[in-house]
Structures are given as C-alpha cells and as structure tokens.
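hey can u run this one w/ zinc ion bound, need the structure tokens asap thx
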Amino acid sequence: MTRPAFPETLPLGEPHEVAEGLWWARLALPFQLNHVNIYLLREDHGWTAIDTGVNNLESRENWQKIFAFIGGKSALKRLIVTHHHVDHVGLAGWLASETGCTVLMSAGEEKTARHALQRDQPDRVARMSAHLRWLGCDDEEIAALTTGLFRATNYMGPLPEGIGGIAPGDTLRIGNRLWHVLPGKGHSVAPVMLHCPDESLLIAGDQILSSISPFIGTFGDAPLASPLRDYLAFLDGIEKTLPADTLVLGGHGRPFDSALQRIASLKTHHAERCDKIVEACRARPLTVRAMMVHIFTRKLDGVMTMALAEVLSHVNLLVDEGRLVAGGSQEVRTLSAP
Ligand SMILES: [Zn+2]
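ok here u go:
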C-alpha cells in the first residue's frame, strides 16, 4: 500500500488527515519532549478521540481549535485513553465535562491514574532518597533529585466518574472501521493499542514510536522489577503478528510505515545497552549511578531520574538472566559481571 508522505511536524491543534476520516493532531507539552499526538476518528454522528494532552491552558487552547475543526464540542462523543501517563490522560476529566463524551480506558490504567492523583504521601522524599542511595547517588545529588519532585496533579485534572472499560480482545466499531484492542506492555501497566487489520493501521500509544525509544523504567516502588523484559516480549509478539505495511500512529513523533524495521532497531538498541552495561561491570563492581557515564555520552541534566530508571530496568533483566550479579549492601547495590 503506498501512502502519502507525512509532514515532519504539525502546527499545534491543526489536524492532518492520515487515512480517510482519521486525523492526526498535535498538542503542546511543557517538557523536554514538547508535543504529544492525539488522533481523531470521524463517525456518522460525531467523533472519537484518542488521548488528551496534559491539563494546562495551552493544551485546552489547542483543543478549542480541535473543537472548531470537528464541528463543536458536542461532536466529541467518545474518548479512548491509551495509558495513564499525564500527556495521554491529563485532560480526560475536562473533556468529559466540556463535551459530555464517554471515556474508555483499561481497568489497570484507570486504577493507576487514580492512584497517581493521590500519591503524594509525606514520606515520598525519604523513600525516594533511600532508593537513589541504593542506586549509588551521593548526598548532593539525592538532595537535587528530590527537590521539586514531579507531581501528576500538576498535569492531570480529576478523572471523570464512570469510565468505561476497554480490554485486549475487544472489538470497537469506529466510523466504518473495525478496530481490535491489542495489549501493550512495558511502558505502562496495562496500555492498549487499536489495530485495524483491514487497512493495516495501528494506533500504538507509546508502545512503538517513530524516533524516540519508548520509556521503559524501574522506580523505587518496585526496585527489582524489569518492565524491559515485558517490553521485549511485547516487541517479539507484535513483530510476528504485524503486517509489514502497517501504518503506525504513535503518541509522539510522526506516523511511519516501517514498523518492522523500527521494532528491529528498538530490539537492537536495548540489546546494545545491555551489552554496554555488562561490559562496564566487567572491570569492577559498579552501582547503577556509576554506570551512567559508560552508557550515556550526553548530559543528563533534568532527566537523571528517568535515565536511572531506564538503566535499572536493564540491570534487573541482566541480573535475572545471570549476566550480572548483584552485590554491595542493603543500602547500596553494586553489580558485577561474572
Ligand atoms: Zn507519552
């Protein structure tokens, strides 16, 4: 199937048609990653939207343009949220109350989103400090990384009551297309993707992206977990089932139709990172923090917490596989390569 070329970027809030009745739009994000994609699907009597952007003034302004495009607020009948991260769910409550649309989300993602809105326990800094020490950060860095902690409530409004469930295995009719709900894994707890096999379209959330590698990280709440194992299993599975001509519509970046190549390069990326980590730990035991200089050549200002979480998910996989051995103490973990 030949497809038209897609623009590298889009003006915010100005939808671009990627397949008949299926529109790609971009909303501003106040992060290093400066945009999120949403998708709009035309139906006989209204529209379904996928994902929302964060809860801030600029996103709401972007949405005003989108409302004008779809023929007014009341034309939005349904919202499907791929996963609970603030850039995808932040405006779900606002959209539901502005438009009266129904909201669909997987049970696991809804639960995690509601949890994120309540999470600020008073011992959060102490728990995070202990985790960062275990990773090998020094006092000065711990102080810096636990100042001004990310709060989901800064970017996510209250969620609507009565969110409808959506689960892998479901089939949704949206306009004149049938979409199969497929499970994601690794980037989030229970993300969903929408696949239209008739036209080889995949609305992928953040599971497969055109240029950045989806964030797969391990944090202090489950420090020995390896979501990377789940993510690699996801890539293996989707690689076997996805037709080569699939058009991937991801949560960031641009649409692309080289899904299988992209999956292969994501697998290579993670394999190379694993090899680098093992190599670094061969000469002497290293903490996760001490590995960073061997893995990243770029500066990690402002993204250190996320980068540590990414490396930790690789490290935990390598420990599970026996390629690294964990040592050190309860307070500070070191890793060595046998
Ligand atoms: Zn995202």
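The pocket of zinc ion is lined by residues 36, 85, 87-88, 206, 251-252 (CB under 6 Å). anyway lmk if its weird
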